[in-house]
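chain below, 120 aa
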Amino acid sequence: MYCNNFNGGYCEKINTHVPRNWCEDRCKFGKNLLVAKKKKAKAKHRKPTVIQMAAHFAKAMSKWMGAGVPVVSKEIYIKRRVACSECHDGSTCPVCGCQLWAKAALETEKCPKNKWEIKE
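prediction:
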């Protein structure tokens, strides 16, 4: 059952446009909940800036070189890339912006979402 405050895509109680199925829940808790959820959703999908990607790259390279440039085996590399396919649709990591073909090969690197915790 939908809220009585819903009128053509606009919730009159919280004074904002919302999808029909959102109106009833948001009216119960007020506009602040809706605003907080929108901000949280935007923060989740925000891609890293070029400066952040450069910082991630520099840190990864210094850590990798300091460890003696170790690379993972072909089997581990394939397992890592399969794990990556669960949360990305391209060749870059959606969290840190790194190129996955390179990041998955470096033994010193870890998945930002801990999806590479594969028993090797």
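Residues 6-44 form one domain. The longest strand covers residues 6-7.
thats it, cya
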